[in-house]
Structure formats: C-alpha cells, structure tokens
C-alpha cells in the first residue's frame, strides 16, 4: 500500500470517527431529556458505546500517523 493510500485511509477513519463521536455526545446529551427511566438506560449505554468505539477510531489514526512521521532509529548492530 502506498504512502498516499495510508494517509487517505487514516484520515478517513479519523474523520468518520469524529463524526460518530459528535453523534454519540449528542445522543448522550439527549438521553438526559427522556422521561422514561428504561429509555434513559438504553439511550445512555448505547451512546456511551458509540463514544467509546469512536474514541478508538480517533486514537488509532493518530498513532498510525505518528508511526509514519517518526524517524526510524538504527541500532548499532544494523550499521
């Protein structure tokens, strides 16, 4: 896979994850406006799961991009 394809894949994952993070936070805020306690529990935990998964989707590209940009260190034995 080429370098441009890696950048495109990581940026796409990051942007989609940011969208779902915003969606999850919005759902969490809306969970507090429900009147039924059972609906609140379902809404709260589903939005928490969306936030958790999208945070992983935000952190993954950050580490992948960091690994691409970080210079490779050569060991003394490799020289």
User: In terms of structural class, how would the helical and strand content be classed?
Assistant: mainly alpha
Strand content: under 5%
Instruction: Give the H and E element order.
Output: HH
Shape field: elongated
Number of strands: 0
Distance between the termini: 28 Å
Mean pLDDT: 89
- Helical region count? 2
- How many distinct folded domains? 1
The helix content is over 70%
The main pleated sheet reads as: none
Low-confidence stretches: none
Q: Tell me the radius of gyration.
A: 19 Å
How does this model look, in words?
It is a single chain. By secondary structure, the chain is mainly α. The protein has one domain. The chain is 78% helix and 0% strand. It contains two helices and no strands. The radius of gyration is 19 Å and the shape is elongated. The mean pLDDT is 89.
Produce a short descriptive summary.
The chain is built from 2 helices and no strands. By secondary structure, it is an all-alpha fold.
């Amino acid at each position: 896979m080429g370098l441009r394809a890696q950048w495109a894949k990581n940026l796409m994952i990051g942007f989609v994850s940011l969208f779902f993070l915003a969606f999850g936070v919005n759902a969490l805020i809306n969970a507090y406006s429900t009147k039924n306690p059972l609906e609140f529990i379902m809404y709260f935990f589903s939005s928490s799961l969306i936030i958790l998964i999208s945070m992983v989707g935000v952190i993954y590209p950050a580490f992948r991009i960091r690994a691409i940009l970080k210079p490779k260190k050569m060991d003394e034995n490799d020289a």
